[in-house]
## 1
Amino acid sequence: MSLFVVATPIGNLGDLSFRAVEVLRDADVIACEDTRVTRKLLQAHDIRTPTESFHAHSGADAVARWVGRLAAGTQVALVTDAGTPTVSDPGAALVAAARAADIDVRVIPGPSALTAAVAVSGLPPEPLLFLGFLPRQGRARQTRIGWLNQLPVTGVLYESPIRLPATLRDLASALGDRPAAVTRELTKRFETVVRGTLPELAERFSEPPKGEIAVVIGPGAGPGPSSWEQVDQALQAGLSEGEPPSRLARQVARQTGRPRAAVYDRLKGMKASNKRD
């Protein structure tokens, strides 16, 4: 009984490895994010193994059923629509559950948008911080972006085309003139890599592009205090979520590198202004 974690092409179907083809053919069943997407890949390589859905909305019951089948001796190949399963992908839940049940898990490495984006960006490849998909709003989003202000590292994130303009504006506001690259449709016919500072890229992508997006952000100078504008944004986000003032001031001070007392004074002024409004 084994669960095979199989990396699949992020665009060009020819990027599937010989070993991956062999494993997909020998498996009893392929667990895939979208059977329609995976079917195109299988047809291109004459793979006739049956497929079944396993996606972000499958839930704990579905994970338990897959683990039960693995425990009963079924050989399962896990794939995502593109790239390596478990990386910003629901397959992580199945791998964790299989490990917990002492089921053998093996990886068949291959394409990954993360490493591909870094490779073509021209930005320092290490140290590297992978941010995945950013939270869509609020303090959690500001905190995730704020990590790049606290560490002198290159950051990588995935983003949907429709949300890319807002994300680039938020990154430019929080991180300033950091060098960055927007990579789009990697390994596909219309692959593009656009480099520039974050403000330049925010202006360039003021309208949503088409295709799959990965953004690479170059390293800053290292830990340093955020601007007071950034402090205010983080405070406002916390207030809108109903965060207790004392805890909010402590968290924002730690996130931005500003003194807690000064942050708390600013928070009190913000609350007083909100009441007058």
## 2
Amino acid sequence: MPPSIDYRSAGLDLDIYENTIGRIGQLVKRSHTPGVLGSFGGFASLFQLDIQALAKEGYQHPILVTCTDGVGTKLKVASMLNRFDTVGIDLVAMSVNDALCYGAKPLVFLDYLAMPKDDPLLAEQLVAGMAEGCVQAGCALTGGETAILPDFYAPGDFDTAGFVVAVVEKSHIIDGSTIQKGDVVLGLASTGLHSNGYSLARKIAFDHAQLPVDQFVPELDQTIGDALLTPTKIYVQAVLDVLAKHRPAVHGMAHITGGGIVDNLPRVLHAGHKAVVRRGSWPMPPIFTWLQNHGNVAEAEMDRVFNCGIGYTMVVAADLVAGIQAVLQQHEIPSWPIGEIVAGDPIVEWA
């Protein structure tokens, strides 16, 4: 008889898989909100919409808003440092900040994690970051999927994706349709690269400058690895607070991700309205200057690849800029009037 073949010999150890699931259960529960039903480990997650509570909050026709996103090659930096607890925050941030652009409040978050072999410690760190991100965003990590794919990913590689469900009152959807000439573009500070432009950033730092990931960089006052691994800012609580106090004054919002301000802000502009953005109207964090100088990156390329220090934009009524900034400052988010809306095609023009 030929030797018996089992799942372990094919690359998947079910005992280690159970260890992985056991490690992440309590981390998931940390983020649970009152709407979560059932226990961790079922075939799907259950979330109860409290219609009466929603009605008290002003929801008459609640609309569900859904988003999905990943972290990209920032995961490579995490692998180089063997530190994975922050990229889970990035994963949550990329989806909840997108949903927020419509004025939506995140409710539940799901993740998908794919690895070449089971790695309980890696999964635990990733889910710990996701749980932290969900706590920051005020939503519940209700479940997900861990896929072990031997022969599909190279050793040490993995990928993860996130999915969020949010809610917004139909009459309160913010889609840019109320943007008008004279509105101010308010830029909210980023914490660094967030989760975009890492293929270029890694090429500059590790291929061109040939820095080891733990190299201290005086201009950054930290190692290059730490600078690149800084988590994406989650803007949810601050912006929802702004909306609670000044919703009619907020006419449009854009999450500044891949494509920078030049590609993302026009997504909320409508015909007849152009955004004029003033260079130098906000302080550019040192990581961007460092990358531009060491890579000799053209200004136009910086505009299209990186957020350059502005992670989120709000197009607001000019007479309430100061009040909105005050609310953001209470949440420790610096902001600057970086431009205004004028007549023209729905593009960004630099001034």
## 3
Amino acid sequence: MTRDPLEAIHALLEDGDAGPRWLLARAEGRIDAEGIVEAGTPLFPGAFNPFHHGHEQLARVAAEMLGRAVAYELAVVNVDKPPLDAAEVARRLAQFEGVGDVLLTRAPRFVEKARLFPGTPFVIGWDTAVRLVEARYYGDSVEAMRDALEEMRASEVRFVVAGRTHEGAFRTLEDAHLPPAFAPMFEGIPESLFRADVSSTELRSG
């Protein structure tokens, strides 16, 4: 169902379980409440504040690796921060007009994303891969971390991981210290295919 963009965003933000589980914002500007996402469509989650050439380059490389066009995903709620308001969501969406489709969700954690979109390859950076397998991001509970990864594995999601510069060194999937039982869920993107030493944080502070 196609809706007025701001009306649809307000419904996602405010209607809770009575509202849409996700919105599909098309590159041409149309928004569909729970628009159809083909099974196996790769998703590139992020805050995209701002969206920059590194994001676009990574999406292109991942699409070539996976043989499928990549859609972006923006969670309107965050584990550590207040929810985005409708105006801010609309501002971030405007960056993608003519670039690519964006899924808006209320799923800040990957286990929640996996429940919405089973069988999905997620395109992530090294730093996100680290957070996925570190107990401190699960209330310091190794058991909770393993339970989440087990659920994601059962949902048949996987992760395509790009390297990132951290503390003066380019870190790749090999630096993420994955638990061996879950390592097959992750695939690294070679530095020869992708490296973009730029971040949204640096662009905002610059």
## 4
Amino acid sequence: MKKLIIVLMVLFAAQNIFAQSGWFVQYRNDSLSEFTKIVFPDSVNGYAFRPGGLFKTTNSGINWVRHDFINNNFSTAEFLNKYKGLSVGSNIASLIRTSDGGLSWDSIYTFPNTIRFIKFKDSNTVFVCCNESIYKSSNGGNSWNLVLNAFYVGSKNHSIIFTDSLVGYMASPSEIFIPFSTYQTIVYKTIDGGNSWSNISYLSNIYFSQMKFINENTGFASTLYSGILKTTNSGVNWFPIYYNSQQFNFIEIVQYNKIYIPGFASPDGGINWYAQNLNTINPIYFKSAQFINNNTGFIVGGGPNMSNHFAFIFKTTDGGGITGITYINSNVSDHFSLSQNYPNPFNPSTVILYQLSVAGFTTLKVFDLLGKEVAMLVNQKQNAGSYAVDFNSSEFNLPSGIYFYTLNAGEFKETKKMILIK
């Protein structure tokens, strides 16, 4: 049955956004319930969900249009493309589907428990995590098979991420109340495309709010009250890279090295962190984030506001303030180093990291295969510490090929090779 659209109106057109830096409030409403999820299936079309409705953009978030579906829960959602998406209906165990870009929704299946997470692996393969189980569909959601039934009662959030067509990871956090309240997270892995899952890690007193992998070996997780964790051995072991006792509801990774959590960011894969201005809003109210390119991203959320609620959309057009060369750590390094750029090969942008043990005049130059200088990235005195440089080859009109970048800092000099493929 199709749901009734109660309200349809243009909410706003953000103006002069490119003149603003860092994160800024693009939209706020102190009478609407909070946004819980933001989804961009491509760089142009996006959806911000809240109980009873969604906001839609068809121009990369410049304008948003409000669509109210008062009977739908919309607690989580996933889109395969700008037309086809899945979410949660009036029954919190009811899966609903749209085929027209969110303009109408139909109920297609009811699960035994509350739907917590939806993941499209491809156009046919979909996974749904419920309180105590994970289901797989091989026909776009028309029928479902139980593939894992091992979650603890009290599970609230799940994350599923695939690093290739066969290998995937799933986190199942839960809060146990008997005999007393405690947290735990189990990490599962599949090597057959999600048909079977193996328990590879158990973390006591840790609650994953979101988990993401950048390749089969390396992953990151945001937590409630335990900061950010990282794995380098396919999820078997996890270690802290940033401790903070706040509640972090999401983790967003852009171009491998840039990591965002509510109120904080790292430009170098979690080595160093710095605070970001979120207009004094408590990070607990930031619920979901997504970047549509290296610089443009959105955060949605909200919460109680006295007797009412409030909802907001934050936006950045400069990576949240991480642009160009950023001095990110006042701790003195005990050595000089130049890291391999990532990604490599790249198109058109890559990130170069380096460390300085003492202050001094520093240059970072790019040369072509014949030794001709094609770009000057750094040419100034810098303090000791860690640095990250964004190199955008399109700014220098460089063709595909092999290039070299050289760091000169006092008596230290090192060169590494990188490959541009267009």
